[in-house]
Amino acid sequence: VEIEQAKSEFDTQFLAPSIARRQKLIAESKNGGSENLPKDILTELLKNEDSLHLPHEIILKEIAFFLLAGAHTSATAFVRTLDNLFNWLKKHPEDAALITNDKSFVQRAMFETIRLNPSSPTAMRRALSDVTLKSGTIVPKNSTVTIDLMSINRSAEIFGADANEFDPHRQISTPNVAAWGLSFGHGMHACIGQELAAGLSERSEETSDYEFGLATVAVQAMFDRNVIADPSQPAKIDTTTKRPYWGSYHVLFEK
Question: How many Cβ atoms are within 10 Å of 219's Cβ, its own excluded?
């Protein structure tokens, strides 16, 4: 009920006015001036509305999803990575130079953060055919499997005896395992915004166009400006959700 109410309010207050504005601009652009159209997903959906055959309800769900996946999750990873690095530096002050000079180190810290705290603690998949797992367990066709991401991402067998701890220097010896575990999913259903948020997973050589991801760049930019946690306003956990989100996190920039 709460989700449906929130969707309705989002539609009325934000989406419907945004659609009306873009439809007007799209109509005007047919006489020239398409370069002035907003370059966003909603505009592309509306420009191709006839061929896509998308009802308003589907557009509402898609835009609401992109708002969550494209902003909220990246912002959460950003703050959590800052917090983890603040705590790491208390015990490892020698790594301070790495944060400002080595973007790869910051990216690894962000990977660790996402591994320990995925945006969603579980993932669900439906079997399209009978599947036999490595353990011998048979997953029948059309059955739903719930994956406990919090547990698998902290497996000592895969990530080491200290799998529950944050360690930006962590080395993973298990083949075909991403540094972030299964937080972004895997295969054809992996998060489509993975490279935008977190960058590429492997760096074989120094290249100027290597993608580090938005969260990595933002975190390093904060440390470039000598960011510290505000001691006068301690961070507070969001008590309105069962998920471990920060409700407020104040920082200061030292000169």
Answer: 28
